[in-house]
Amino acid sequence: MSNNRFMSENLSNPATSSNPAAPSETKLQMAEALKRLIKNRPFAKITVQDIVAECNINRNTFYYHFENNYDLLSFTYSLEVQNIVNSFQEANASLPQAMDFVLDYIDKNIPLCQCAYESLGEQQLKIIFEKDLMVFVRATIDYFAAQASIKFSEDFETFVGYSFTNLLSSQIIWYIRHNGDLDKEIFKQCLQTFYTASLKSVMEEAAKKGF
């Protein structure tokens, strides 16, 4: 079984992937408006009035959906991350391809990414990433386990899944923070090498101990 096919089967499994209700068109419209405005001015300079004027809606409509601009920013960035994960699911992406999706997105949308980091904070950003990346990490664990014909306990897979999702989220945020100072290809190679080698090592040791 190929890496791509295995990843596709696991990532599309309803038991392991999130399937939230689709957001309303009005919320999507406001998210798109915020993305456009962030390209031209700092987030702190964007007001609720700017958003409603851009969308041709009234302030009551805005406050029906969001408490404030920070709430809208959190929704917008969560939706962006969800769309990235959906993209490499639909493409049956391997780990290197998935990293390409993520880093390419950051490079093309660095104003929004850095705005999310500066305005929402690192902890909130990690929560946003972890929610969707956990599905991908668990699929990677299942793939490595299948290659070695090993069945781990659910508790162990949950622990390892959370730990490596946390690691991956932290490294993505680090790339956002230092985007202008990093060589993308070197960063990607280091991340892939560390992630896969560490995960395989942990799983091999766990197999010896009978987890």
Q: Can you tell me about this structure?
A:
The chain is an all-alpha fold and 211 residues long. It has one domain (3-209): Tetracycline Repressor, domain 2 (Orthogonal Bundle). Helix content is 76%, strand content 0%. It is built from 10 helices and no strands. The protein has helices at residues 3-11, 25-38, 48-55, 59-65, 69-90, 95-108, 110-120, 122-147, 154-177, 184-209. Helix 2 (25-38) packs across helix 3 (48-55), helix 2 (25-38) crosses helix 5 (69-90) and helix 8 packs across helix 9. The chain is elongated, with a radius of gyration of 19 Å. The two termini are 24 Å apart.
Index terms:
disordered N terminus, 211 residues, 0% strand, 10 helices
Number of domains: 1
Mean pLDDT: 84
Low-confidence stretches: 1-20
Q: What is the string of helix and strand elements?
A: HHHHHHHHHH
Q: Cα distance, first to last residue?
A: 24 Å
Largest sheet: none
The CATH superfamily label reads: Tetracycline Repressor, domain 2
Question: How many DSSP E strands?
Answer: 0
Morphology: elongated
Helix content: over 70%
The CATH C-level class name: Mainly Alpha
Number of helices: 10
At CATH level 3, the topology is: Tetracycline Repressor, domain 2
Radius of gyration: 19 Å
Structural class: mainly alpha
Topology summary:
Layout: H1 3-11, H2 25-38, H3 48-55, H4 59-65, H5 69-90, H6 95-108, H7 110-120, H8 122-147, H9 154-177, H10 184-209
Helix pairs in contact: 1-8, 2-3, 2-5, 5-6, 5-7, 5-8, 7-8, 8-9, 9-10
Q: TL;DR of this structure?
A:
The protein is mainly alpha-helical.
